[in-house]
Amino acid sequence: MKSKNYIIMFFSLLIIWLLLNSSFNPVVVVSGIVVSAVIALFFCKSCDVFTAVRLTPKAFLYSLMFIVVFFKELFKSNLDVARRVLTPSLPIKPGIVEVKTKLKSKIGRIFLANSITLTPGTFTIEIHEDSLFIHWIDVKSENIEEDTKMLVHKFEKYLEVMYG
User: I need a labelling partner for 76 at 20 to 30 A (CA). Which of 5, 98, 114, 154 fits?
Assistant: First the structure.
């Protein structure tokens, strides 16, 4: 068991526990510590998903920047989809596009796929090696490089620093 994986899982579970309980009562905190430690011990024996997580000041700064960019893209895409719903005469061109990623780590690719899926109008269907297949509400291009630039690059430059 790698201690980095255990520590990241333990603190992630503890934060989720505290958020779900909405309390810093000593009984809740201690039981959260115990439950998080037990779950992390059982499930981190062979997990390697957190190996690529970089715990550096630069990675922390980029994660904050990523959150800002993500919420900006989320807001823009919500407005776009709302506009399409309220104006049915707007043309749409739905389709599945393939985009490429430079991310090598599993968790980096998962974060990228989920970031794309969480923005309305897009849905990641499959991750295969360095390709992501995305259903897009309004395909603007049939070119992999252009689609990658429009969908992936805005997130990828931050995720590269955070996860490699």
Answer: 98
Integer CA distances (angstroms), 36 to 9, 51, 139, in order? 8, 19, 43
Segments of the chain scoring below 70 in pLDDT: 1, 164
Rounded Cα distance between 58 and 62, Å, is 6
The 3-class SS string of 26-64 reads HHHHHHHHHHHHHHHHHHCCCCCCCCCCCCCHHHHHHHH
Q: At what angle do helices 26-43 and 3-21 cross, to 10 degrees?
A: 140
Q: Which residue has the tokens 């490429």?
A: 100
CA atoms within 13 A on the CB side of 39: 15
Q: Are strands 122-128 and 131-136 parallel, antiparallel or unpaired?
A: antiparallel
Check residue 1 and give its pLDDT: 45
Q: What share of the chain is helix, strand, coil (3-state, %, to 5)?
A: 60, 15, 25
pLDDT recorded at residue 68: 96
CB 103 within 8 A of CB 112: yes
